[in-house]
Amino acid sequence: MMTGTEYKQSLSDGRATYFEGERVDDLPGHDLLGPAVQDCAEGYDWMLEHAVDGHSPLAGVPTSPEELRAMVDLVHQSGMMSHVTYTSIMTLATTAGRVKDEAPQYVELMHAFIDDAQRRDVRITQCITDAKGDRSRPPGHQEDPDSYVRVVGRQSDGVVIRGAKLHITGASLGHELMTIPTKAMKAGEEDYAIAAMVPVNAPGVRIINTTYAPRHADTRDFPVSARHNYPEGFVIFDDVFVPNERIFLNGEVSQASVFAHSLGLWERLGGLSSMADGADLLVGLAQLVAEANGLAGESHIKEKISEMIIHATVVRACLEACLVHAKAGPFGAVFPDELYTNAGKYTGAANYGLMVRHLHDIAGGAVVTAPSIADLENTDVGPLARKYMRGSTADGEYRTRLFHAIRDLTADTYGGWRAVTNIQAGGGLYAQRIVTRRHYDLARAKEMALEATGLAGGGHH
Ligand SMILES: Cc1cc2nc3c(=O)[nH]c(=O)nc-3n(C[C@H](O)[C@H](O)[C@H](O)COP(=O)(O)OP(=O)(O)OC[C@H]3O[C@@H](n4cnc5c(N)ncnc54)[C@H](O)[C@@H]3O)c2cc1C
Predict the structure, then answer these.
(1) d(Cα 169, Cα 230) in Å, to the nearest integer?
(2) CA 272 / ligand 1 centre spacing (Å)
(3) Which residue in 36, 125, 176, 389 could disulfide with 396, CB within 3.0 to 4.6 Å?
(4) 235 - beta bridge partners?
(5) Neighbours of 420 (CB within 10 A)
(6) CB pairs under 8 A, 24+ apart, for 51-56?
(7) Residue with CA at minimum distance from ligand 1 atom 16
């Protein structure tokens, strides 16, 4: 296993990564990206502390619903880069099981990669979302044929790929880019049916970073985003060679969507588990600020918080249900239930705006105008700011800090990022509607309706 220090050193591998127009050669030392590297390094040290027989506690794949539940909790605690790595590994394990009949030649390669990646203790990010150009047109009918990642050269020892994958969480901080098709492909789109594992430092890979990390000099006013933030990467494959042993799909169009569906399941499970905690956190903030404002007993405030509690409970119930109804697949691995995972992720995402609306409604305008910690420390205005920021029993600093957390989490750079991410990450709401519908027992619902209406077996249409 790697230590945090070794991880930081591993990033000096010649990778071409950029931020706001400049190439970044020293990621750990970068003002805005460095803290994310440090966070990932601490994740490595955390893993070492929790090692089991010298292996990462996340090594292997779960083979029972109990193991799956334990893994979900561990992944949640272990930080973003472990999370995306685990999701990538589970995606490959799931895909290997699903393509074993149609494309058996890749199964061994995927399993070999999983073993090797776990042995090297590397971090893997998921490159699925293509640039996509004109959304109404399939990959092969775009004005620019590179709008979806594709093979532009074939040789006996591998392929050359070109294209871009966008919004990739932590791309610059990992070691491997799991590059897979974003959707189903049709006959004629063989060059787009490509799945490959690409090292971040492979010649031709360039990554442009964006981040919601606070830019404020005093990060005490950003209690949430200053602690954990990760850049997204705009990953460009500018004619990148991939050797055969790192190719997991190469032209088999019928299998192209298996990767996206497998990733979607694990990605949404991760999303659902953080949404369950995230919803509880919003409830907690709403209650704390209501108490600090002296309004916790007010009926309309209680009603709003009750509605928030119901939402948080329903999201958690879906998380519980998808784990309880976990299913065993080929090779003994266990998977969360698709129906509950997708319905839960959808519910969490669709109602997030309502949760934030209630929180803002309860909290008041100081969400965006509370003075800074430095203002409270200023000898001229500090005591007065504390005096007027006081609420019921809460002192001025306590109440101010509550507002800082609410702003950071829901109404500032990071808050905006969360609002969009809730909807889009793991596929937009539409994607979860499709998968939920596919796994729901519609036939049974129709039978029940026919029974209730007295039309069952009557030959009516
Ligand atoms: C913070 C963040 C982190 C992310 N992390 C990752 C990551 O690590 N890896 C990764 O691969 N992706 C990641 N994503 C990308 C995410 O999966 C996509 O944003 C999402 O799938 C939507 O794709 P898009 O952004 O290109 O939007 P679009 O596809 O342009 O979608 C915009 C809207 O148009 C609709 N639409 C699109 N095409 C069609 C069509 N043909 N017909 C009808 N309606 C259509 C969609 O349903 C949606 O409502 C991340 C996104 C965010 C915001």
Answers:
(1) 7
(2) 17
(3) 389
(4) 165, 207
(5) 10
(6) 51/1, 54/1, 55/1, 55/118, 56/1, 56/118, 56/121
(7) 425
